[in-house]
Amino acid sequence: MREQSEEGHRGFSMIELTLVMVVGLIIAGMAIPAFLTIERNLRISGDARDINGDMAVAKMRAASDFTRARLYADLAANSFRIELWNKSGAGSWVTEGGTQPLSQGVTLGFGSLGTPPPGTQTAIGQAPACLDNAGAAIPNTACIVFNSRGIPVDSTGAPAANGAIYITDGAAVYGITVSATALMQAWRSAAGAAAWKKI
Questions:
Q1: What are the angstrom distances between the C-alpha of 104 and each of 22, 42, 47, 88?
Q2: What is the per-residue DSSP string for 166-195?
Q3: Which of 64, 94, 129, 189 could form a cystine bridge with 137, CB 3.0-4.6 A?
């Protein structure tokens, strides 16, 4: 009687193990691409939220400190930061906090899209170039500058309605736009054709 019970528990056959491995590989083959898509979407949407948040902070810092503040985007380094205008002495732009790099695979730009989000810019494009302390344009930069009332302004101090920062990962494009009334909006579109949706 004891010999029969031991024979009934020998383990799994090679066919059973092979079947389990094949099923596991099929499930992994379906799950990995979905996981990579989710990871890519989380990276770019997180960067868009960070840019939107830093833009809101720059707007509030300008108003709370009665100075100018800007979101400074370095198009070559794919990074962004907040800068405040230091009024003392001759005046200069000072970085507040640190520089935030974009996630791996995300760049500043809008790919091949040719149409901006509705009701924002007349033509799609990054915000105007940042100016150095002497007022000269800094190549490969984009800045959205807020005055002491939290209104986006151009280099002359007039209210500006062309502020936008775009990021892309090749599959999607996110845009953070600012109107002349300081209304900030976040947008998303597929990279292949402009189909902007507010997020």
A1: 33, 11, 10, 38
A2: EEE-SSEEEEEEE-TT--EEEEEEESSS--
A3: 129
For residue 163, what is the enclosing H or E element? Answer: strand 163-168
**Percent of the chain at pLDDT above 70?**
95
Q: Using the predicted structure, report yes or no on whether residue 6 has a pLDDT greater than 80.
A: no
For the chain, list the domains and their CATH numbers. 2-198 (3.55.40.10)
Question: Please, are residues 176 and 119 in contact by the beta-carbon 8 Å criterion?
Answer: no
State the Cα–Cα distance between residues 93 and 113, nearest whole angstrom: 32
Nearest Cα to 146, choosing from 160, 136, 135? 160
Question: Which DSSP category does 126 fall into?
Answer: P
> Which segments of 52-138 are extended strands (E)?
69-74, 79-86, 92-101, 107-108
User: What is the mean predicted confidence (pLDDT) over 124-137?
Assistant: 94
Q: Is the dihedral of CA 96, 98, 102, 108 positive or negative?
A: positive
Token couple for 31: 């799950």
49 pLDDT higher than 90: yes
Please list the residues that pair with 190 across neighbouring strands.
172
- Please report, for residues 30, 34, 149, the alpha-carbon distance to residue 22 in angstroms, rounded to integers and kept in the order given: 13, 19, 64
Distance, in Å, from the CA atom of 63 to the CA atom of 86, rounded to the nearest integer, reads: 14
Token representation of residue 33: 């691409």
Whether residue 70 contacts residue 83, with contact meaning beta carbons closer than 8 Å, is answered with: yes
